Amino acid sequence: MALLRRLGRVVAGAALAFASSLAAAAPLRIATAFDPQTMDPHSLALQYHTRVVFQIYESLVGRDQNYGLVPVLATSWSQTDPLTWRFKLRPDVHFHDGSLFTAEDAVFSFERALAPPSQRQFVLKGVKSVRMVDPLTIDIQLAAPDAVLPHKLVLVAMMSKRWAQAHHVERAQDFNARQETWAVRNANGTGAYRLERYEPDVRTTLKAFPQWWNRSNADNGNVDDVSFVTIRSDATRLAALHSREIDVVLDPPYQDVEQLRHDPELAVAQVGDISTEYLALDQASAALPGVASGPDGKPRNPFRDLRVRRAVYQAINIDLIIQKVLKGLARPTAELLAPEFGKPDPADSLRPRFDPVRARELLREAGYPDGFDLTLDCVNAALREHVCQAIAAMLTQVGIRTILHTSPSTQFFPMITQGKVSLAEFGFTGSTEDAWQGLNGLLHTWDRDGGGTFNGGRYSNARLDALIDAVRTEPDPTRRRTLVATALKLAVDDVAYVPLYRRTLNWVMQKKVHVVMLPDDTIPVRWVSVR
To answer: Are 497 and 280 in contact (CB under 8 A)?
Structure first.
């Protein structure tokens, strides 16, 4: 069963009136609090980046309106032997500069995505090489069998080798080093929309690509021009929507959703999120900034003690945060991955109860009777800030005196991928129905080959690493599910992270707009229609 059938597919707007009232072509203006930050499709692996860049670029495989896996730039795939996957490529596909997409471009794209500093490297762990068989066929060679490899390729974008070489962008942008390359502000994909202009922290303007290979698909909408407008202020985004300067707001403030639902000129779409929000705790450093040395004079890192990690967990009243901050539009979770990616044992789905008294006892047992000082890092979007403020106050009440530090996404996310946080709040969205991606990205020991790319706390557990590597290579679905469940239980018991909640996603739009809402909070503009 497709993932979205379990989550509930959402098609929003005045759907019934659209069949007879579509314009031949229409513009669309989408507002969000986050900038995509770069047009390089391999340099980042963030939801806010994916939302925009994958309107321009495409992968070999993708998602349909039910979130099921479908062919895109590949027409078919099969295993020629246990270590080789063969992909047949779609003929007569043009890049936006008019050149044809071939196997040479596909090989180049995989090699680029596999090489540091690409952040898409983590989904390709185990890929040994990619070679051209003929102009429309490639073979992907694996170091070990991988029965679900196609699912991992959904967000591995195909680029033009000739274009990349002409502009000296054969390697992905080093986003963490704030590198400037041609691919940061320019793009050349095969997707439904080509890049007109990228103005960082202002807007990204796209225009429909007439030669798109899938232009005649019946599911396509009628949007010819689209602008992704970055408006950090919640109030300003909504003001622009009410004044009709904006057509869609992807991240309306939670406290306004109920009121927006009753606005006769607007429509609100909702769907359950497949992402999970966490606290990442530094478990690698010998000492945390602000934490006094122990009685023996040695520096200390409280988070290395399981009792302290449990104290953090039990100090947080997540039900109150959901009620007061998120206005009920979220669900508390004890699971490190959404159930769609790996069904845990029901016993592992129960959060330890909120118990500040027990949290203080745990701190005393761990040798911190007076608590300690700490910095909590958070991205400076209003929703995240408000949640982090509540968490900081709750931790302070049990003796973990927490100072909140917020920063823009250009600074915050590199701190996560470089493991430079003591405590941080962030979310992770899987792009496949397979649990391995989340296990490898979040829980595997960090390495230069793509393990632990988003392991912000640099958590490391050799037994868990072995389980994660076994999940990747296990072909039997039943044994694979058992390995996933074992890995998740180990990570939960060890409090590798403190899971917080799963959101209810909300988009608000003019009633003239009809969208297909996916559970990864991306908006495929090719399916949007405007009356």
So the answer is: yes
